[in-house]
TrEMBL record:
The organism's taxonomic lineage, starting at the top: Bacteria, Pseudomonadati, Thermodesulfobacteriota, Desulfovibrionia, Desulfovibrionales
GO molecular function: phosphate transmembrane transporter activity
Family: Belongs to the SLC13A/DASS transporter (TC 2.A.47) family. DIT1 subfamily.
Pfam families reported for this sequence: Na_sulph_symp
Top-level taxonomic group: Bacteria
Species name: Pseudodesulfovibrio cashew
Xref: InterPro entries: CitT-rel (IPR030676), SLC13A/DASS (IPR001898)
A GO CC annotation given for this chain: plasma membrane
Protein name: SLC13/DASS family transporter
Alphabetically ordered keywords of this record: Membrane, Transmembrane, Transmembrane helix
Amino acid sequence: MEIAQAANTGFDWKRLVFMLTGVTLFAVVFFSSAWPDAIDPNGQHFALSKEGKGAIAVFLLAGTWWVFEVVPIGITSLMIGILQVMFLIRPAKVAFKDFMDPSVLFIFASIMIGLVFTKTGLTRRLAYKMLDVVGERTSMIYLGVFVVTAALTHIMAHTAVAATIYPLLLAIYALYGEGDKPTKFGKGLFIGMAYVAGAGSVVTLLGAARGAVAIGFFKEIVNVEVGFFELSYYMFPIGWGMTFLLWGFFMIFMKPEKERIPGLREKARELNAKMGPLTRNEIMAAIIVGTVICIMSLRSFVPALNAVDKTAIILCSSVLFFVFKILDLKDLEDIPWNIILLFAGAMSIGFCLWETGAAKWMAVNWLVMFADANWFVFVMSIAFFVMIMTNFIMNVAAIAISLPVALVIAPYLGVAPEVILYSSLAMAGMPFLLLVGAAPNAIAYDSGQFTTGEFFGWGVPASLLLMVFVGVACYILWPLMGMPVTLPAGG
């Protein structure tokens, strides 16, 4: 008992070191003298203001604290707002307003859908049906989960898909027989769901907002319209190729301890039978969620609906859950606010980097390093930059930061704009390193199966796999599909 108490009161030096590392990085950058301007190929100068340098300083502290989890991830997000205000980087009204950005409320509503699916029993019903189909082999359970997740992101936002699939995974894992303790199967199941949600979301414009934002920039800068089905044509092999490659990745690096779960199919059938017919709450929840998903999906095709922000539409479901008494006050208190705060802070630092000009300064400095490179090296340098940025800030912001700069530099190297657009979209959709890169990452983290450090550790080889696959697509696959990758001589 005394040993246990001593262990609990022992000083955590490792935590202190990483906490001070973040603080030191902030201080060194913030209090350093002015940094030189970034200069693009046209000779245009981009000065880094004191506020921009401060934004980079906050960015470094937050990244360090998030990776090593020196305090709860949501508390690090609060620090992002505090530092902006205390060091006069942005006014409080601006810095903290981003904490309630529509994207954050969209994540809140998505998590509410997941809670409803769990409370009503729809999740367990779906899990038992799925296990009845895929059987007892854990490799097939992995594959079944990944395929269902990827397919759903073609018709609804990947955040909503992750929130819906998450409780289903909890129900599946409960049948693995290891309680709540972390296992390789648990890590592979939840991290894999997060990764694959990103992979599937690149295939259509319905999976995430980043596609529409990128196409908007493309139209404005290149004056070429990219259609819904044209995007899907080029991104389909990327999304599904990565889905199956990730299945192989997790079967190698997180191979389940048990090859099969004996009697699982029979148990799933038995548990499903015990649930009886659909209840009133299950039917109401399915109707509400189904209607909201249909309306959000139709926004891409119906101009009148497109004028209404998707956040307002999905929040209608949250209100209706309480109107029809599917949820009550106790359920509202069960919302994982740590995850909501995480994304609130991510939005704040993203806007901070953008509005202070720090993001543009970083993008120009990075891309001009490759201004005399071979077209393939230049495209991969853009892909790498987007991959890093999208892990620290929301992927929409990463696209907004990097794509315009890349499209301006591309003609000097004879690089076709299409290959830049699609490679950037592929990388922006799959942030495998940090939880803040995408909502599915943070939702998966709530399972308790892995730490932020473990997520980062496995994200490094997964990101390398993505880089290689996108490189193959740029060099071989997309040209075979008819995509121009270089401009005609003299073009």
